[in-house]
Write a structure and sequence with these properties.
Elements (H helix, E strand, L loop, with lengths): L4 E5 L5 H11 L5 E5 L3 H7 L11 H8 L4 E4 L2 H7 L2 E4 L19 H13 L4 E5 L7 H12 L6 E5 L9 H6 L4 E5 L3 H14 L8 E5 H32 L3 H9 L20 H14 L3 H28 L8 E5 L14 H11 L3 E5 L5 H12 L2 H7 E3 L3 H5 L4 E4 L11 H7 L5 E4 L6 H7 L2 E4 L5
Parallel strand pairs: 1-2, 1-4, 2-3, 4-5, 5-6, 7-8, 9-10, 9-12, 10-11, 12-13, 13-14
Helix pairs in contact: 1-3, 5-6, 9-11, 9-12, 11-12, 12-13, 13-14, 14-15
Length: about 475
Protein backbone atom coordinates (compact mmCIF):
# COMPACT_ATOMS: atom_id res chain seq x y z
CA UNK A 1 0.00 0.00 0.00
CA UNK A 2 1.25 3.49 -0.82
CA UNK A 3 2.27 5.74 2.09
CA UNK A 4 -0.37 8.41 2.70
CA UNK A 5 1.54 10.95 4.80
CA UNK A 6 4.44 12.44 2.89
CA UNK A 7 6.82 15.19 3.97
CA UNK A 8 9.35 17.01 1.80
CA UNK A 9 12.18 18.94 3.45
CA UNK A 10 13.05 21.78 1.07
CA UNK A 11 10.61 24.08 -0.74
CA UNK A 12 12.72 24.89 -3.78
CA UNK A 13 12.61 24.24 -7.52
CA UNK A 14 12.44 20.46 -7.01
CA UNK A 15 10.52 19.98 -3.76
CA UNK A 16 7.68 22.39 -4.46
CA UNK A 17 6.61 21.23 -7.95
CA UNK A 18 7.26 17.54 -7.20
CA UNK A 19 5.09 17.55 -4.10
CA UNK A 20 2.37 19.59 -5.78
CA UNK A 21 2.03 16.92 -8.47
CA UNK A 22 2.14 14.09 -5.90
CA UNK A 23 -0.69 15.82 -4.03
CA UNK A 24 -2.66 16.10 -7.28
CA UNK A 25 -1.98 12.63 -8.63
CA UNK A 26 -0.86 10.46 -5.69
CA UNK A 27 -4.24 9.09 -4.64
CA UNK A 28 -7.27 10.35 -2.76
CA UNK A 29 -5.82 9.64 0.69
CA UNK A 30 -2.40 11.21 0.23
CA UNK A 31 -1.38 14.22 2.33
CA UNK A 32 1.76 16.11 1.37
CA UNK A 33 3.53 18.69 3.55
CA UNK A 34 6.45 20.73 2.25
CA UNK A 35 8.58 22.15 5.05
CA UNK A 36 11.40 24.68 4.98
CA UNK A 37 13.13 26.88 7.56
CA UNK A 38 12.92 29.82 5.13
CA UNK A 39 9.77 31.59 6.35
CA UNK A 40 9.72 34.02 3.42
CA UNK A 41 9.75 31.18 0.91
CA UNK A 42 6.98 29.28 2.71
CA UNK A 43 4.90 32.47 2.87
CA UNK A 44 5.29 32.81 -0.90
CA UNK A 45 4.12 29.22 -1.45
CA UNK A 46 1.04 30.09 0.61
CA UNK A 47 0.38 33.27 -1.38
CA UNK A 48 -0.95 34.12 -4.84
CA UNK A 49 2.60 34.80 -6.08
CA UNK A 50 4.59 31.59 -5.88
CA UNK A 51 8.36 31.85 -5.29
CA UNK A 52 9.18 30.21 -8.62
CA UNK A 53 7.71 30.51 -12.11
CA UNK A 54 6.89 27.28 -13.88
CA UNK A 55 4.13 26.89 -16.51
CA UNK A 56 1.16 25.05 -15.01
CA UNK A 57 2.46 25.14 -11.43
CA UNK A 58 0.03 27.82 -10.22
CA UNK A 59 -2.97 25.76 -11.32
CA UNK A 60 -1.75 22.60 -9.56
CA UNK A 61 -0.95 24.41 -6.32
CA UNK A 62 -4.28 26.25 -6.30
CA UNK A 63 -6.18 23.00 -6.78
CA UNK A 64 -4.45 21.16 -3.91
CA UNK A 65 -3.24 23.75 -1.39
CA UNK A 66 -5.14 23.65 1.87
CA UNK A 67 -6.76 20.34 0.95
CA UNK A 68 -3.98 17.78 0.81
CA UNK A 69 -0.98 20.03 0.05
CA UNK A 70 0.48 22.16 2.83
CA UNK A 71 3.50 24.45 3.17
CA UNK A 72 4.95 24.97 6.64
CA UNK A 73 8.02 26.14 8.58
CA UNK A 74 7.37 23.48 11.25
CA UNK A 75 10.02 21.04 10.08
CA UNK A 76 9.96 18.98 13.28
CA UNK A 77 6.20 18.32 13.11
CA UNK A 78 6.43 17.46 9.43
CA UNK A 79 9.06 14.84 10.24
CA UNK A 80 7.02 13.39 13.13
CA UNK A 81 3.85 12.99 11.05
CA UNK A 82 5.40 11.53 7.91
CA UNK A 83 5.63 7.92 6.75
CA UNK A 84 7.89 8.90 3.90
CA UNK A 85 10.30 11.87 3.80
CA UNK A 86 11.81 13.42 0.69
CA UNK A 87 15.07 15.27 1.29
CA UNK A 88 15.16 18.02 -1.34
CA UNK A 89 17.61 20.61 -0.03
CA UNK A 90 20.30 22.54 -1.84
CA UNK A 91 23.60 20.78 -2.60
CA UNK A 92 25.72 23.59 -4.08
CA UNK A 93 29.30 23.28 -5.22
CA UNK A 94 31.68 23.70 -2.27
CA UNK A 95 33.38 27.08 -2.04
CA UNK A 96 35.76 26.10 0.75
CA UNK A 97 38.12 23.38 1.91
CA UNK A 98 38.74 20.02 0.30
CA UNK A 99 37.03 19.77 -3.07
CA UNK A 100 36.53 23.54 -3.36
CA UNK A 101 35.07 24.41 -6.76
CA UNK A 102 34.09 20.82 -7.63
CA UNK A 103 32.67 18.72 -4.80
CA UNK A 104 29.05 19.01 -3.67
CA UNK A 105 28.42 20.69 -0.33
CA UNK A 106 26.26 18.15 1.53
CA UNK A 107 26.05 19.90 4.91
CA UNK A 108 22.30 20.51 4.44
CA UNK A 109 21.78 16.82 3.71
CA UNK A 110 23.55 15.97 6.97
CA UNK A 111 21.44 18.53 8.89
CA UNK A 112 18.29 16.90 7.54
CA UNK A 113 19.48 13.45 8.59
CA UNK A 114 20.14 14.62 12.14
CA UNK A 115 16.75 16.34 12.34
CA UNK A 116 14.97 13.24 11.03
CA UNK A 117 16.72 11.02 13.59
CA UNK A 118 15.90 13.41 16.44
CA UNK A 119 12.22 13.94 15.70
CA UNK A 120 11.09 10.59 14.31
CA UNK A 121 8.89 8.60 16.66
CA UNK A 122 8.47 5.60 14.34
CA UNK A 123 10.32 3.97 11.45
CA UNK A 124 10.33 5.84 8.14
CA UNK A 125 11.45 5.77 4.55
CA UNK A 126 13.91 8.57 3.75
CA UNK A 127 14.43 9.51 0.11
CA UNK A 128 17.26 11.45 -1.49
CA UNK A 129 15.60 13.80 -3.95
CA UNK A 130 18.45 16.30 -4.12
CA UNK A 131 21.26 15.65 -6.58
CA UNK A 132 23.96 14.12 -4.43
CA UNK A 133 27.41 12.55 -4.82
CA UNK A 134 27.52 8.79 -5.24
CA UNK A 135 27.30 6.92 -1.93
CA UNK A 136 25.62 9.79 -0.08
CA UNK A 137 22.96 7.26 0.97
CA UNK A 138 25.63 5.52 3.03
CA UNK A 139 26.32 8.79 4.85
CA UNK A 140 22.60 9.32 5.49
CA UNK A 141 22.24 5.77 6.76
CA UNK A 142 25.23 6.04 9.10
CA UNK A 143 23.97 9.29 10.66
CA UNK A 144 20.42 8.00 11.06
CA UNK A 145 21.51 4.70 12.61
CA UNK A 146 23.88 6.42 15.01
CA UNK A 147 21.23 8.84 16.26
CA UNK A 148 17.87 7.05 16.05
CA UNK A 149 15.79 6.03 19.04
CA UNK A 150 15.42 2.41 20.12
CA UNK A 151 13.05 0.41 17.95
CA UNK A 152 13.15 2.90 15.06
CA UNK A 153 14.75 2.09 11.73
CA UNK A 154 15.14 3.93 8.44
CA UNK A 155 15.30 2.74 4.87
CA UNK A 156 17.20 5.06 2.51
CA UNK A 157 16.17 5.35 -1.13
CA UNK A 158 17.52 7.36 -4.03
CA UNK A 159 14.86 8.90 -6.27
CA UNK A 160 16.57 11.57 -8.39
CA UNK A 161 14.56 14.13 -10.32
CA UNK A 162 14.91 14.46 -14.09
CA UNK A 163 12.99 17.70 -14.52
CA UNK A 164 13.71 20.38 -17.07
CA UNK A 165 12.80 23.85 -15.88
CA UNK A 166 10.13 25.34 -18.10
CA UNK A 167 8.51 21.92 -18.61
CA UNK A 168 8.74 20.57 -15.05
CA UNK A 169 5.00 20.04 -14.53
CA UNK A 170 4.65 18.11 -17.77
CA UNK A 171 7.82 16.16 -16.91
CA UNK A 172 6.25 15.21 -13.57
CA UNK A 173 2.87 14.37 -15.06
CA UNK A 174 4.31 12.34 -17.95
CA UNK A 175 7.83 11.22 -16.99
CA UNK A 176 10.10 9.29 -19.34
CA UNK A 177 11.05 7.23 -16.32
CA UNK A 178 10.99 7.25 -12.54
CA UNK A 179 14.22 5.94 -11.04
CA UNK A 180 14.25 4.37 -7.58
CA UNK A 181 17.40 2.98 -6.01
CA UNK A 182 17.51 1.09 -2.74
CA UNK A 183 19.23 -1.59 -0.73
CA UNK A 184 19.11 -5.11 -2.14
CA UNK A 185 17.54 -6.49 1.04
CA UNK A 186 13.96 -7.47 1.93
CA UNK A 187 13.59 -4.18 3.84
CA UNK A 188 15.01 -2.20 0.94
CA UNK A 189 12.74 -3.94 -1.55
CA UNK A 190 9.71 -3.20 0.65
CA UNK A 191 10.66 0.50 0.78
CA UNK A 192 11.09 0.60 -3.00
CA UNK A 193 7.65 -0.98 -3.41
CA UNK A 194 6.11 1.61 -1.09
CA UNK A 195 7.53 4.56 -3.03
CA UNK A 196 6.71 2.90 -6.33
CA UNK A 197 3.09 2.58 -5.18
CA UNK A 198 2.91 6.38 -4.82
CA UNK A 199 4.03 6.92 -8.42
CA UNK A 200 1.90 4.08 -9.78
CA UNK A 201 -1.19 6.20 -9.21
CA UNK A 202 -0.32 7.98 -12.47
CA UNK A 203 2.94 6.54 -13.87
CA UNK A 204 2.80 3.24 -15.81
CA UNK A 205 4.70 0.57 -13.89
CA UNK A 206 6.96 -0.19 -16.84
CA UNK A 207 8.37 3.36 -16.60
CA UNK A 208 9.49 2.84 -13.00
CA UNK A 209 13.11 1.66 -13.03
CA UNK A 210 14.56 -0.05 -9.96
CA UNK A 211 18.31 -0.19 -9.32
CA UNK A 212 20.66 -0.40 -6.39
CA UNK A 213 21.24 2.86 -4.53
CA UNK A 214 24.63 3.65 -6.01
CA UNK A 215 23.49 3.17 -9.62
CA UNK A 216 20.58 5.53 -9.02
CA UNK A 217 22.79 8.24 -7.53
CA UNK A 218 25.32 8.02 -10.34
CA UNK A 219 22.65 7.88 -13.07
CA UNK A 220 21.53 11.40 -12.21
CA UNK A 221 25.05 12.81 -12.57
CA UNK A 222 25.58 10.84 -15.76
CA UNK A 223 22.33 12.04 -17.35
CA UNK A 224 23.16 15.71 -16.82
CA UNK A 225 26.76 15.22 -17.90
CA UNK A 226 25.69 13.58 -21.17
CA UNK A 227 23.14 16.32 -21.91
CA UNK A 228 25.63 19.11 -21.21
CA UNK A 229 28.22 17.29 -23.30
CA UNK A 230 25.88 17.42 -26.32
CA UNK A 231 25.42 21.16 -25.89
CA UNK A 232 29.15 21.79 -25.64
CA UNK A 233 29.71 19.54 -28.66
CA UNK A 234 27.31 21.48 -30.89
CA UNK A 235 28.67 24.77 -29.54
CA UNK A 236 32.17 23.66 -30.52
CA UNK A 237 30.81 22.97 -34.01
CA UNK A 238 29.21 26.44 -34.05
CA UNK A 239 32.64 28.07 -33.89
CA UNK A 240 33.83 25.95 -36.83
CA UNK A 241 30.67 26.85 -38.76
CA UNK A 242 31.22 30.57 -38.25
CA UNK A 243 34.78 30.25 -39.53
CA UNK A 244 33.92 28.13 -42.59
CA UNK A 245 30.55 29.45 -43.73
CA UNK A 246 28.63 26.37 -42.66
CA UNK A 247 25.33 26.74 -40.81
CA UNK A 248 25.25 24.97 -37.44
CA UNK A 249 21.46 24.53 -37.63
CA UNK A 250 21.84 22.62 -40.90
CA UNK A 251 24.66 20.54 -39.43
CA UNK A 252 22.53 19.79 -36.34
CA UNK A 253 19.57 18.78 -38.49
CA UNK A 254 21.75 16.49 -40.60
CA UNK A 255 23.35 14.65 -37.67
CA UNK A 256 20.10 14.65 -35.69
CA UNK A 257 18.49 12.47 -38.38
CA UNK A 258 20.92 9.73 -37.40
CA UNK A 259 18.83 7.40 -35.24
CA UNK A 260 21.88 6.70 -33.09
CA UNK A 261 22.08 10.38 -32.13
CA UNK A 262 18.61 11.93 -32.39
CA UNK A 263 17.80 15.64 -32.63
CA UNK A 264 17.53 16.71 -28.99
CA UNK A 265 20.04 19.02 -27.28
CA UNK A 266 21.66 19.98 -30.58
CA UNK A 267 20.64 23.65 -30.49
CA UNK A 268 23.74 25.83 -30.55
CA UNK A 269 23.64 28.81 -28.20
CA UNK A 270 25.67 31.19 -26.11
CA UNK A 271 26.01 28.44 -23.51
CA UNK A 272 24.12 26.24 -21.08
CA UNK A 273 23.12 27.31 -17.58
CA UNK A 274 20.82 26.24 -14.80
CA UNK A 275 21.38 24.78 -11.36
CA UNK A 276 22.32 21.25 -12.42
CA UNK A 277 24.56 20.89 -15.45
CA UNK A 278 27.70 22.65 -14.23
CA UNK A 279 27.26 21.53 -10.62
CA UNK A 280 26.76 17.89 -11.55
CA UNK A 281 29.66 17.79 -14.00
CA UNK A 282 31.97 19.33 -11.41
CA UNK A 283 30.71 16.73 -8.94
CA UNK A 284 31.57 14.04 -11.48
CA UNK A 285 35.02 15.59 -12.01
CA UNK A 286 35.66 15.50 -8.26
CA UNK A 287 34.38 11.93 -7.97
CA UNK A 288 36.64 10.74 -10.82
CA UNK A 289 39.63 12.51 -9.30
CA UNK A 290 38.99 11.02 -5.87
CA UNK A 291 38.86 7.56 -7.49
CA UNK A 292 42.28 8.20 -9.08
CA UNK A 293 40.83 8.51 -12.57
CA UNK A 294 42.45 11.80 -13.72
CA UNK A 295 41.83 11.20 -17.43
CA UNK A 296 38.11 10.74 -16.78
CA UNK A 297 38.04 13.87 -14.61
CA UNK A 298 39.78 15.94 -17.30
CA UNK A 299 37.43 14.63 -20.01
CA UNK A 300 34.37 15.88 -18.18
CA UNK A 301 36.06 19.12 -17.10
CA UNK A 302 36.45 20.07 -20.75
CA UNK A 303 32.64 20.23 -21.11
CA UNK A 304 32.69 23.13 -18.63
CA UNK A 305 35.79 24.69 -20.20
CA UNK A 306 34.07 24.76 -23.60
CA UNK A 307 30.91 26.30 -22.13
CA UNK A 308 32.87 29.06 -20.39
CA UNK A 309 34.76 29.72 -23.62
CA UNK A 310 31.53 29.99 -25.62
CA UNK A 311 30.16 32.63 -23.25
CA UNK A 312 33.39 34.63 -23.32
CA UNK A 313 33.67 34.29 -27.11
CA UNK A 314 30.21 35.78 -27.58
CA UNK A 315 30.97 38.77 -25.36
CA UNK A 316 34.25 39.41 -27.22
CA UNK A 317 32.38 39.23 -30.52
CA UNK A 318 30.01 41.97 -29.38
CA UNK A 319 32.92 44.23 -28.41
CA UNK A 320 34.81 43.51 -31.62
CA UNK A 321 31.80 44.29 -33.84
CA UNK A 322 31.17 47.55 -31.98
CA UNK A 323 34.58 48.79 -33.13
CA UNK A 324 36.47 47.37 -30.14
CA UNK A 325 34.92 49.74 -27.64
CA UNK A 326 31.60 49.70 -25.80
CA UNK A 327 32.43 52.37 -23.22
CA UNK A 328 29.33 54.45 -22.61
CA UNK A 329 27.34 52.62 -25.30
CA UNK A 330 23.84 51.42 -24.46
CA UNK A 331 23.51 47.70 -25.05
CA UNK A 332 20.09 46.10 -24.62
CA UNK A 333 20.10 42.64 -23.07
CA UNK A 334 16.99 40.65 -24.02
CA UNK A 335 16.61 37.83 -21.53
CA UNK A 336 18.42 37.03 -18.30
CA UNK A 337 16.95 33.65 -17.29
CA UNK A 338 19.07 30.64 -18.27
CA UNK A 339 16.25 29.43 -20.56
CA UNK A 340 12.71 30.40 -21.49
CA UNK A 341 9.67 29.62 -19.34
CA UNK A 342 11.51 29.99 -16.05
CA UNK A 343 12.60 32.81 -13.79
CA UNK A 344 15.71 30.88 -12.74
CA UNK A 345 19.02 32.62 -13.38
CA UNK A 346 21.41 30.16 -11.75
CA UNK A 347 24.57 29.87 -13.90
CA UNK A 348 22.76 31.71 -16.71
CA UNK A 349 25.02 32.58 -19.63
CA UNK A 350 23.57 36.10 -19.42
CA UNK A 351 25.31 36.68 -16.09
CA UNK A 352 28.75 36.10 -17.56
CA UNK A 353 28.17 37.88 -20.88
CA UNK A 354 26.90 40.91 -18.93
CA UNK A 355 29.87 40.71 -16.57
CA UNK A 356 32.31 40.85 -19.48
CA UNK A 357 30.45 43.76 -21.10
CA UNK A 358 30.40 45.69 -17.80
CA UNK A 359 34.15 45.17 -17.49
CA UNK A 360 34.41 46.90 -20.88
CA UNK A 361 32.37 49.85 -19.61
CA UNK A 362 29.09 49.18 -21.44
CA UNK A 363 25.80 50.70 -20.27
CA UNK A 364 23.41 47.72 -20.02
CA UNK A 365 19.65 47.97 -20.32
CA UNK A 366 18.18 44.60 -19.32
CA UNK A 367 14.71 43.17 -19.89
CA UNK A 368 13.41 39.73 -18.93
CA UNK A 369 9.68 38.95 -18.67
CA UNK A 370 9.98 36.72 -15.58
CA UNK A 371 13.21 37.38 -13.68
CA UNK A 372 12.82 39.73 -10.72
CA UNK A 373 14.96 42.86 -10.85
CA UNK A 374 16.42 42.21 -7.42
CA UNK A 375 17.68 38.84 -8.66
CA UNK A 376 19.41 40.42 -11.67
CA UNK A 377 21.11 43.00 -9.44
CA UNK A 378 22.19 40.28 -7.00
CA UNK A 379 23.62 38.07 -9.76
CA UNK A 380 25.57 40.86 -11.42
CA UNK A 381 26.89 42.24 -8.14
CA UNK A 382 28.11 38.77 -7.15
CA UNK A 383 30.24 38.40 -10.30
CA UNK A 384 31.30 42.04 -10.74
CA UNK A 385 32.08 42.53 -7.05
CA UNK A 386 31.15 46.22 -7.10
CA UNK A 387 27.53 47.13 -6.29
CA UNK A 388 28.12 50.81 -7.09
CA UNK A 389 29.39 49.91 -10.55
CA UNK A 390 26.35 47.74 -11.22
CA UNK A 391 24.02 50.54 -10.08
CA UNK A 392 25.85 53.01 -12.32
CA UNK A 393 26.01 50.91 -15.48
CA UNK A 394 22.85 48.76 -15.35
CA UNK A 395 19.26 49.82 -15.99
CA UNK A 396 16.45 47.31 -15.48
CA UNK A 397 13.30 47.73 -17.55
CA UNK A 398 9.77 46.34 -17.38
CA UNK A 399 9.02 47.51 -20.95
CA UNK A 400 11.10 45.83 -23.69
CA UNK A 401 10.75 48.83 -26.00
CA UNK A 402 12.16 51.11 -23.32
CA UNK A 403 15.07 48.69 -22.96
CA UNK A 404 15.73 48.70 -26.72
CA UNK A 405 15.14 52.39 -27.38
CA UNK A 406 18.33 54.15 -28.45
CA UNK A 407 20.58 51.11 -27.95
CA UNK A 408 23.69 50.63 -30.06
CA UNK A 409 23.06 46.88 -30.01
CA UNK A 410 20.41 44.32 -29.07
CA UNK A 411 21.67 41.09 -27.54
CA UNK A 412 19.35 38.06 -27.29
CA UNK A 413 20.48 35.81 -24.43
CA UNK A 414 17.25 33.90 -23.59
CA UNK A 415 14.95 32.28 -26.16
CA UNK A 416 11.68 33.85 -24.92
CA UNK A 417 8.97 33.42 -27.59
CA UNK A 418 7.79 37.00 -27.16
CA UNK A 419 11.07 38.32 -28.58
CA UNK A 420 10.00 36.99 -32.00
CA UNK A 421 6.95 39.25 -32.09
CA UNK A 422 8.55 42.66 -31.48
CA UNK A 423 8.35 45.51 -34.00
CA UNK A 424 12.02 45.61 -34.91
CA UNK A 425 11.45 48.22 -37.64
CA UNK A 426 10.22 50.62 -34.95
CA UNK A 427 13.15 49.70 -32.70
CA UNK A 428 15.65 50.17 -35.57
CA UNK A 429 14.48 53.72 -36.13
CA UNK A 430 15.41 54.66 -32.55
CA UNK A 431 18.93 53.19 -32.64
CA UNK A 432 22.25 54.84 -33.56
CA UNK A 433 23.60 53.66 -36.91
CA UNK A 434 24.98 51.21 -37.75
CA UNK A 435 22.60 49.21 -35.55
CA UNK A 436 23.63 45.76 -34.37
CA UNK A 437 21.69 42.70 -33.27
CA UNK A 438 23.47 39.71 -31.69
CA UNK A 439 21.34 36.56 -31.51
CA UNK A 440 22.83 34.18 -28.96
CA UNK A 441 19.90 31.77 -29.25
CA UNK A 442 19.35 31.57 -33.02
CA UNK A 443 15.80 32.74 -32.32
CA UNK A 444 14.92 35.55 -34.71
CA UNK A 445 14.28 35.96 -38.45
CA UNK A 446 17.75 37.05 -39.49
CA UNK A 447 16.96 37.67 -43.16
CA UNK A 448 14.13 40.04 -42.21
CA UNK A 449 16.34 41.86 -39.71
CA UNK A 450 18.97 42.33 -42.44
CA UNK A 451 16.29 43.79 -44.71
CA UNK A 452 15.35 46.27 -42.00
CA UNK A 453 18.99 47.37 -41.85
CA UNK A 454 20.47 45.62 -38.83
CA UNK A 455 23.99 44.29 -38.79
CA UNK A 456 23.15 40.77 -37.60
CA UNK A 457 25.57 38.47 -35.79
CA UNK A 458 24.43 34.94 -34.94
CA UNK A 459 25.87 31.94 -33.14
CA UNK A 460 26.90 29.25 -35.62
CA UNK A 461 26.53 30.91 -39.01
CA UNK A 462 27.38 33.92 -41.12
CA UNK A 463 24.47 36.18 -42.01
Amino acid sequence: MAPTNICCIGAGYVGGPTCAVIALKGGENVKVTVVDINAERIAAWNSDELPIYEPGLDDVVRECRGKNLFFSTDVNQGIKDADLIFVSVNTPTKQYGVGKGCAADVRYIESCARAIAEHSERSKIVIEKSTVPARTAATLSAILKANCKDGISFEILSNPEFLAEGTAIDDLMNPDRVLIGGAETPEGEAAIAALSAVYEHWVPKERIIVTNTWSSELSKLAANAFLAQRISSINAMSAICEATGANVSEVARAIGKDSRLGPKFLQASVGFGGSCFQKDILNLVYLAGSLNLPEVAEYWRQVIVLNDWQEARFAKRIVRCLYNTVVGKKICILGFAFKKNTGDTRESAAIYVCRDLLEEGAQLSIYDPKVKHAQIKHDLTSVVGDAAKVDRLVTLETDPYAAMNGAHALVVLTEWDEFQGYDYEKVFQSMPKPSFLFDGRMLLDHAKLKEIGFNVEVIGKKV
